[in-house]
Fold Putative 4-hydroxy-4-methyl-2-oxoglutarate aldolase.
Amino acid sequence: MINISTKFERPDPDLVKQLSTFSSATIHEAQGRLGALDSTIKPVDHRMKLCGPAFTVVCAPRDNLMLQTAIHYAGPGDVIVVSGGAYAEAGSFGDVLANACQAKGLGGLITDTGVRDTEDLRALGFPVFSHSVCIKGTVKETVGPVCEPITVGGQVVRPGDVVSADADGVVVVRRENLAEVIAASQQRVDTEAEFIAAYRSGKTVAEICNLMPMLAAKGIVINE
């Protein structure tokens, strides 16, 4: 007998909402350039965004039995995160399952395998981030873990960690680090706003970034 637990500690919804205001790149940089999933995992529509607690599941390649199981047990706002062996040649998720997810109020899907029916997914607007787009079908044969730590896109994702994604990519933030990462992200946004204001006032990149001493220290001589 295989026991599957579907219970885990979810993050504070207010903190998730605050994190959602920052881009994936900002979050990644703010937490010390950590947490970025492989750059091959991208949205099926560049306008798609998501931010929510990870509901993790492991699927065998070309098998979506446990993905459907995860969809059944996930709650509103949860983001299904699938470790499917980074197998590109399978379309394990499409418009029918996306409608099932949307009807339950789920926050999105992130998978290291393939999806299909992308025109319908774009029209539906349910956020889907995948390793590939592939029309090849799947089976429902192999059982696997649900709501356990998984490895996807080169990162360990635990149930209840927060995944945030946009057109640039996907980043994971540890549940216990949320408040700290939010503060660091805001600080980064404020600093970048100061840079932009300085550039628009007429200052140069060399002035703002103190480039000349760095170049000189590396032996660069510039003849103007």
